[in-house]
């Protein structure tokens, strides 16, 4: 059985990545979400709970990884993030592999990966898609979120690869100015990929 075509989806904060992922799902394309996988792994009975317990016991409360406590520990411990990633990344990869295997006869699978280029995921993906929007639209969307401040946005953007660099490295780019425009672009891309990889 041939495996599905793997399209990696990414985009900076406020660019419409989650909305675009939902549009692929609405068109019947299986969508794997890296953040959701981590949430499953950190939940009660999740595969990452024993690993995090071994590294940072105070971050586990009632059998669930408390992400707030974990972030606080990462902020104080220099090599904390590297240790967590070493424990959790293989579990995320296993979750992803299981999802792809379960996709069955699907010809296209979308993998929603926030730090796609930062983690080198483009090396094993068949193609990459970056969602983008003008900076003023991005800023307005993010600042509309509850509790978000200019300072928080600046911190987040400083940690993310610049949008221009992501676009330059992407196989495909979709601009998310409006829902209708984005949906049309998603449908066109699905048709194009299915046709070229039939």
Description:
The chain has 198 residues and is an alpha/beta fold. The chain has two domains: 1-30 and 107-198, Rossmann fold, CATH 3.40.50.300; 34-102. Helices cover 53% and strands 14% of the residues. It has helices at 17-26, 34-42, 48-55, 67-76, 80-102, 135-143, 150-159, 163-169, 179-196, and strands at 5-10, 31-33, 60-61, 64-65, 108-112, 127-132, 172-175. The strands form two sheets. The chain has a five-stranded parallel β-sheet with strand order 2-5-1-6-7, with helices on both faces. Strands 3-4 form a two-stranded antiparallel sheet. The longest helix is centred in the middle third of the chain and has 23 residues, at 80-102. It is globular. The two termini are 13 Å apart. The model has no long low-confidence stretch (mean pLDDT 93).
Shape verdict: globular
Helices, by number, come to 9
Spatial strand arrangement across the major sheet: 2-5-1-6-7
Number of strands: 7
Percent helix among the residues?
40-55%
Q: What is the CATH C-level name of the largest domain?
A: Alpha Beta
Nearest-angstrom radius of gyration?
18 Å
């Amino acid at each position: 059985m041939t495996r599905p075509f793997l399209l990696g989806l990414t985009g900076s904060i406020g660019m419409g990545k989650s909305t675009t992922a939902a549009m692929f799902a609405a068109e019947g394309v299986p969508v794997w979400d890296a953040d959701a996988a981590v949430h499953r792994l950190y939940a009660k009975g999740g595969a990452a709970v024993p690993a995090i317990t071994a590294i940072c016991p105070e971050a586990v409360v009632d059998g669930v990884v408390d992400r707030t406590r974990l972030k606080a520990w990462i902020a104080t411990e220099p090599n904390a993030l590297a240790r967590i990633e070493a424990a959790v990344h293989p579990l995320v990869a296993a979750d992803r592999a299981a999802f792809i295997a379960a996709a069955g006869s699907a010809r296209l699978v979308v993998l929603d990966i926030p730090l796609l280029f930062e983690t080198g995921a483009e090396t094993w993906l068949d193609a990459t898609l970056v969602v983008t929007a003008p900076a003023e639209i991005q800023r307005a969307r993010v600042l509309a979120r509850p509790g978000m401040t200019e300072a928080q946005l600046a911190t987040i953007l400083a940690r993310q690869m610049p949008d221009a660099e992501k676009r330059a490295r992407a196989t495909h780019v979709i601009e998310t100015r409006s829902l209708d425009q984005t949906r049309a672009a998603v449908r066109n891309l699905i048709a194009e990929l299915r046709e070229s990889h039939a």
